[in-house]
Structure formats: C-alpha cells, structure tokens
Amino acid sequence: MTAGPQPELFTWEFATDPYPAYAWLRENAPVHLATLPSGVEAWLVTRYQDARAALAEPRLSKNPAHHAASPHAKGKTGIPGERKAELMTHLLNIDPPDHTRLRRLVSKAFTPRTVAQFAPRVQELTDQLIDAFVEKGEADLIHEFAFPLPIYAICDLLGVPREDQDEFRDWAGMMLRHTKAGQGGGPRGGVARSVKKMRSYLAELIHRKRENLGDDLISGLIRASDGGEHLTENEAAAMAFILLFAGFETTVNLIGNGVYALLRNPDQRARLQQSLAAGETDLLATGVEELLRYDGPVELATWRFATERLTLGGRQVAEGDPVLVVLAAADRDPERFTEPDTLDLARVDNQHLGYGHGIHYCLGAPLARLEAQTALATLLRRLPDLRLAVDPADLRWRGGLIMRGLRTLPVEFDRHVR
User: Fold this and answer.
1) Mean pLDDT for the chain?
2) Is residue 184 predicted with pLDDT exceeding 50?
3) What is the DSSP letter of 359?
4) Spatial CB neighbours of 42, under 8 Å, sequence gap ≥ 6
5) Would the pLDDT of 185 be above 50?
6) How buried is residue 350: exposed, middle or buried, by Cβ count under 10 Å (0-12/13-18/19+)?
7) Do 301 and 316 meet the contact criterion of CB atoms below 8 Å apart?
8) Domain contains 274
9) Quick one: DSSP state of residue 142?
10) Does position 85 have pLDDT exceeding 60, yes or no?
C-alpha cells in the first residue's frame, strides 16, 4: 500500500518526477476525478488493465463535440487554434466511420516497409546534425539534435520543400516552447499563432502540389481515394497538420528522455554499446520499447469523452465527462510489469501503452521507432563517451499535460569526429 496523503498534481515538482504520485493514484484512486490546470475536470485512469480497456472503449469518443463542459471550459481540451484554423478533422478528433476512412487512406505511408525505405534519409539527417556539433565537445541534445531530427524527417515525408523547412522548424519550436499552454493551462497564444501560420502554409502548399503531384505524403493525400471518396482540402490539411504536430514532439521526447535514461543507467547503456559494437540489433529494438515504457514521450493519451454513462475501474463516469488515460502510470503498474521502476533494455514481455492501443494506436509509431533507433545507435557509436554536463537536479521538464520531455539536455564529450 502506498501510504501518505494524496500528492499534489500538475506542479513543477510533479513534472520533474510524476511517478511517485502515479503510484499513489494506482493504489488509492486508480480512476480519479481531477481538476486540471485549465480548470477542466477530467477522469485520470492509472492502472494498466483499466487503461488498456479505456483506450479500446467505443463509448469513449475522440470527438470534442461530446464534451458536456461548462462554457468556460470550451476550447481547453484540444490543440489551441485548431478549431479556428479549420483543422479539426484529423485522426485525434474523430471516430469511425470517418476515422476508419481517413486512417486507411494515410496508413500506407507508415507501413514498416514504407518507413524502411526512408531509413537512409533518417541516417543522413542524424549524421548531419551530429556533424554540426561534434567538434565542439558539447551540445544541447534537445535543441541541436532531438528536436530538428523529427522535424526535418516529417517535412521530407510530407513533401515540404527544403527551402521552407526552416520556417516549419520555427513554427514547431513555438509549439514546443508553449506545449504547457496547449496541454494544461497558461497562455495559449503562441501555439495558436503557429497553428494559424501552418494552416495558411499548408493550404498554399496543397494548391501548389495539385499542379505538380510527387511521391510525398501530401501528394498522396491529394490523390488518395477510398471507394471514390476523396479527401477534402480541409481533411488533407488537417491530416498533414496532425502528422507534424503529433509526430515531431513525441519523437523529440522519445530521443531526449531515452538518452537521459541511458545516461542515468550506465550499466544498461554499456550493455547496449557492447551489443551494437558486436553488430547486434536485437537489444536496440527491445531497448527502444523499454524506453517507451520506462519514461515515454506521451504522459497521457489524448482526450476522450464519454458518449453515455459507463463504469470505469469501479467509478461511474457521466455522459460528456472527459477521460484521460495516464500512459505513464499504466506502464509502471507492478500488476503488469516486473520491477516496473527498473530500466531493463532486454525486457521481452513488454506490451507497453506508450503509443496507445486499439483503433487510435499511433499511426506514426514505425517512423518514430526508426528515428529513435537510428538516433541512439549513432550517438552511442560516434560519441561513446557522451556524458551529462549538468547536475540532474538542474534539468527542467516541460510541464504539459499530454507530453513529457526535457527542456534542455546539456551533454559533453571528447572532441573527435567519427
């Protein structure tokens, strides 16, 4: 039994290490009605069994129209600015049959086989980013590596011209700096402005590509059809937008949190380096899955809303109530995982929920895994003496609601080029 008083949630202290609080909730209030920093009340689901059930529960809708909130909470449960920018019709906001249709149209771009063809470009980007700082002997691995890698990768995949990608990086940076605002309270203007600029750009890019279709994802969305049903321009723009918005920050945090976990667990890091030096890749693959479980990039699954009264973990959830599945808590549930607070890169029985479960399982998971495996393997090969350059107590975490990641990750290493 986890004793003591109920911990305070959503503070800066909580953001630094939420796992003790989640352990208390799992033991004492596994389905807990909490008031979020935005003022919205939502149910937090923390046990693995309940979380997995909730993620696949058809009576929990992704459509914000089902939110029976008071007027003051309107617009506080999604991405700031997406409604005004007419970007609501994406996979995180819709249910079947529209979700089924749209996911089928875009899923072919994220099959393991298609993503594998993208591997050389991801490796090229990874090496270019390391080349830019390797001779300095120090770097901020978030801003100089973990952040730009997925931005440039997803831009290439979408078909954003190279000359426009730095502008996309600036917009994404604005979103990253203001994630707290969009996910859990505080000023939301920075994200909304970036969303508006991105929407205008995507509309113009879609128009240009209609005149000259290519092999990129946006061209595929334009030409895609499913039984004669073509994507509307709003659907195409919303799909491109959410692939960027949801795709880049998850990978930023996966790489950043993953490197930090390896630096804090030198025995596991050494084991992975030895495996890679021997030309083996199995531990790299299981290791990325373990990093997703141990300190994953997505702390809470995106919003769900009850379409009718239902029982969840023994609690009565009313129609219209928001439900947030706490992936970070579920993935450290001792009822499901042996020694859940221990990092074990060789963990095999690891059905974590880091990328969700059910029909809303993360579409971009194969690409994120490729980027993370490439990033970690290349860092460990080229910078074998990589070490933290600050006291861990000096690191700061972005205090959002959905995502969890480091603001910076200062590292140092011996000056050499490999």
Assistant:
1) 87
2) no
3) G
4) 33, 34, 36, 303, 321, 322, 323, 324
5) no
6) middle
7) no
8) yes
9) I
10) no
In the chain, what's the furthest Cα-to-Cα distance?
64
Q: Which long-range contacts (CB under 8 A, 24 or more apart) does 67-74 make?
A: 67/303, 67/305, 67/320, 67/322, 68/305, 68/318, 68/319, 68/320, 68/321, 69/40, 69/320, 69/322, 72/39, 73/38, 73/39, 73/40
Q: What is the pLDDT at residue 71?
A: 41
ω before 150 within 30° of 0 (cis)? Answer: no
Residues 56, 61, 64, 70: is their CA dihedral positive or negative?
negative
- Residue entry with tokens 């508006």: 196
pTM of the complete model: 0.90
CA distance 24 to 363: 32
Average pLDDT over residues 365-382: 95
* Cα–Cα distance measured from residue 86 to residue 234, given in angstroms and rounded to the nearest whole number: 7
- Asked whether residue 120 is domain-assigned, the answer is yes
Predicted local distance difference test score (pLDDT) of residue 270: 97
Q: Please, which residues bridge with residue 107 across strands?
A: none
Measured CA to CA, the distance from residue 371 to residue 122 in angstroms comes to 7
What's the confidence (pLDDT) of residue 83? 55
Tell me, what CATH number does 393's domain have?
1.10.630.10
Name the percent of the chain lying above pLDDT 90. Answer: 58
Query: Which residue is associated with the tokens 């595929």?
Result: 220
Q: Which helix (H) or strand (E) holds 116?
A: helix 112-117
Neighbours of 129 (CB within 10 A): 21
Do the bridges between strand 41-45 and strand 322-325 make them parallel or antiparallel, or are there none, so unpaired?
Answer: parallel
Query: Mean pLDDT throughout 260-275?
Result: 98
Q: pLDDT at residue 87 above 50?
A: yes
CB 364 within 8 A of CB 145: no
Show the domain range for 269. Answer: 12-412
pLDDT, tens digit, 9 for 90 and up, residues 316-352 = 999 999 999 999 999 999 999 999 999 999 999 999 9
Tell whether 418 is covered by a domain: no
Q: Domain count for the chain, please give it.
A: 1
Q: What is the pLDDT of residues 25-53, one digit of tens each?
A: 999 999 999 999 888 999 999 999 999 99
- Kindly list the strands in the beta sheet with 410-412, ordered across the sheet, starting from the edge strand earlier in the chain: 138-140, 410-412, 387-388
Asked, for residue 3, whether it belongs to a domain, the answer is: no
Per-residue model confidence (pLDDT) at position 269: 98
